[in-house]
Amino acid sequence: MYIDTHCHLDSKKYKENLDTIITNALNLGVQKIIIPGADINDLPYAAQIAEKYSGVFFASGIHPTEIGDFDCNMQAKIKDILSNPKCIAIGEIGLDYHYFDSNNCDDIKLAQERAFRYQIELAISNNLPIIIHTRDSNDDVIRILKDYESDIIGLVFHCFGGDKTLVNALSCPTYFGIGGVVSFKNAQSLRDCLQELPLESLILETDAPYLAPMPHRGKINTPEYIPIIATHLGETLCLDLEIIATNTTNNALKLFKI
Q1: pLDDT (tens digit, 9 = 90+) per residue, 26-67?
Q2: Can you tell me the distance from the alpha carbon of 135 to that of 154, in angstroms, rounded to the nearest whole number?
Q3: CB of 90 within 8 A of CB of 60?
Q4: 3-class secondary-structure state, position 204
């Protein structure tokens, strides 16, 4: 059994063949899939998908590059959907400095931090785990999380790329989302870092439709590729596929309580 802990099933790229994609994933042992929140306007559709398929769950949240003005209306939408029983986390939330324009980067940083803190506090008040997005922003992400670490029940650094500054940085239960990047030739730093991480801290994800693993790199990613990612992770750690499947599944169940 596998769990895809980060898959954008609400992407427009899946509109025409969602049933087939989910059925194929199930047939390959991917029994549960979690849709992360990204665009506030997509949250209702993510909830609709989760309500239709028993093994699909979703998270409420806004990706840092999608927060806009982060007004009261947006905050209410994030909060209100938490009443849905298939909503099992807050995320993906965090900071993303990758596309900054130097003319207004300070204002954007402040806006992203404000939204990040609000959503962390929402997770804490609702006893939910957090899915973290960080890009070119690890120092600030850790700085902010440290203000809340004693109250966070658990979090995952989504799309973990091997940055050791994130390892052992926090005292709260911390997991690392391993996706198709582990199969890339230029990801040796990730593979080296994985040698030092306990298996109990690793969970699987696709980040589909992005970052398809080898030999499908450059194509549309799907949850069907989770076993391929697990195979690459097993090869990196010199562990049998069954051990990878069992442990990553148990870790996901423990974090997300599904």
Answers
A1: 999 999 999 999 999 999 999 999 999 999 999 999 999 999
A2: 20
A3: yes
A4: strand
Cβ atoms within 10 A of the Cβ of 95, count? 25
DSSP E strand stretches across the chain: 2-4, 30-35, 56-60, 87-96, 130-135, 155-157, 174-178, 202-204
Q: Which structural domain range is residue 146 located in?
A: 2-256
Tokens of 92: 């993906």
The domain total for the chain is 1
Report the alpha-carbon distance of residue 111 to residue 92 in Å, rounded.
Answer: 16
Sorting pLDDT into bands at 50, 70 and 90, what band is 202?
very high
Nearest Cα to Cα of residue 191 among 236, 158, 127, 147 = 236
pLDDT in tens, 133-170: 999 999 999 999 999 999 999 999 999 999 999 999 99
At 41 the three-state DSSP class reads helix
141 touches 112 (CB < 8 A): no
User: CATH no. for residue 28?
Assistant: 3.20.20.140
